[in-house]
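stage 2 :: seqdesign
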């Protein structure tokens, strides 16, 4: 299930400097010709540290936000310390097994120590356990037992290490926010500026990674936004109900742009 043809490989890639030594990896796909009448779409995986920016609104038809993550202490505790573990006890046991009992009172800190360990074997073991916990709780229907225990490919292992290190680094520093409600606070502050800027929120009812209350809270902070809670989905964007709603919103923007 894809939003564009599967053979639509990037025609160019680049690393975009965004300040303080950080870069974003960018792929440009689709029709590179200037006379293309299609609508440019920026597909941005926010992940840790993401936020709503009202800059350059004149160049944007609107925003579609899926699987709302606010990086609050409550969310981090729910997924990485205690809460979600009650729904997936067998998967949690594997996530927890990497950490000695005397360090389990702060799982993020314990994982951070291992993900920054000079021993690559220690780093990989921690990264696989961290990423597997997220991958296997991503959807409404979890992977089969066979898939849960399938060895990772080299590419999957590289991705696991990169994702785990980045996420854990941000979470150790509360995503570098200066207040726990940073994103909601700024959304409320910018609500008037964003009032004429279409924003559509899409969230799975059974999202175990980012609880649905996040989407409700953001919708309340941005009252002009629309909110769709998909009744039969978790967190993954390509679950059928979420995918259909994302496609509907993209089609709406396309219709608005058409002459």
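stage 2 :: out
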């Amino acid at each position: 299930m894809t939003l564009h043809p599967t053979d639509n490989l990037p025609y160019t890639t680049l690393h975009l400097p965004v300040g303080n030594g950080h870069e974003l990896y960018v792929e440009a796909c689709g029709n590179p010709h200037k006379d293309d009448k299609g609508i440019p779409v920026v597909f941005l995986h926010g992940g840790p540290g993401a936020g709503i920016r009202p800059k350059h609104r004149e160049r944007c038809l609107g925003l579609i936000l899926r699987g709302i993550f606010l990086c609050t202490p409550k969310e981090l505790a729910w997924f990485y310390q205690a809460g979600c573990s009650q729904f997936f006890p067998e998967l949690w046991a594997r996530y927890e097994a990497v950490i000695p009992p005397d360090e389990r009172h702060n799982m993020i800190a314990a994982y951070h120590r291992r993900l920054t360990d000079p021993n690559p074997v220690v780093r990989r073991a921690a990264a696989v356990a961290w990423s597997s916990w997220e991958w296997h709780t991503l959807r409404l229907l979890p992977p089969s037992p066979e898939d849960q225990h399938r060895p990772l490919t080299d590419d999957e292992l590289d991705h696991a290490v990169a994702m785990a290190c980045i996420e854990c680094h941000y979470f150790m520093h509360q995503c570098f926010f200066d207040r726990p409600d940073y994103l909601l606070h700024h959304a409320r502050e910018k609500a008037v500026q964003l009032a004429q800027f279409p924003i559509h929120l899409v969230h799975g009812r059974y999202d175990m990674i980012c609880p649905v209350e996040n989407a409700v809270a953001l919708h309340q902070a941005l009252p002009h936004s629309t909110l769709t809670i998909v009744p039969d989905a978790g967190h993954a964007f390509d679950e059928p109900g979420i995918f259909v709603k994302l496609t509907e919103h993209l089609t709406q923007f396309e219709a608005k742009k058409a002459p």
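stage 3 :: structure notes
- The chain has two domains: 12-71+178-257, 74-176.
- The radius of gyration is 19 Å.
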